[in-house]
Amino acid sequence: MRLKQIKTLPEFAEAVRLRLEVFYKEQKVDPLIEMDQFDKSAYHFIALQKKKVIGTGRVRIYNKKAKIERIAIDKRFRHKGIGTKLTRFMINFVRKKHISNIVLHAQCYAKEFYEKLGFKAVGKTFNEAKIKHIKMVYKK
Length: 140
Ligand SMILES: CC(C)(COP(=O)(O)OP(=O)(O)OC[C@H]1O[C@@H](n2cnc3c(N)ncnc32)[C@H](O)[C@@H]1OP(=O)(O)O)[C@@H](O)C(=O)NCCC(=O)NCCS
What we know:
Oligomer: single chain
Radius of gyration: 14 Å
Strand content: 35-45%
Number of strands: 7
Order of helices and strands: EHHEEEHEHEE
CATH architecture: 3-Layer(aba) Sandwich
Number of domains: 1
Bound molecules: coenzyme A
């Protein structure tokens, strides 16, 4: 398995394909919410297995903070540590930019996944794209 920042349009198209498969087809998120205006300025990342995109995520940097978003692992490749490795890769990318404030909005079911990576939940749960979320802040 290989992790990399997206640099080409075909790689981005594959990441979008996976995002739509996971967030639209599986989780029924409105595709017009899933794809948004921030895709243009965000940094995008993929996990590759034999040239196939099996994981993706993006980072938005604004106001001296980074927000990790759209982490999706191909259903057939979950629970193998790929989400953890991809998220760590994105955290390292952010830290190399000397940004220590890293936040995300976790779907509540995935809270433990992010806790294991060093994120702590803050505040109350809220709905985003009709799914229950909680804000989490990186504390390592
Ligand atoms: C959440 C997601 C990214 C996790 O990716 P993954 O590659 O399966 O995660 P990992 O194998 O690295 O899991 C590491 C730990 O996170 C936790 N975890 C992972 N998936 C979990 C789940 N569905 N429910 C509860 N805990 C979970 C477990 O503690 C796991 O440790 P374990 O393997 O010892 O049990 C993946 O399930 C996914 O793509 N889900 C659909 C899209 C989504 O909901 N994205 C998150 C939006 S906030």
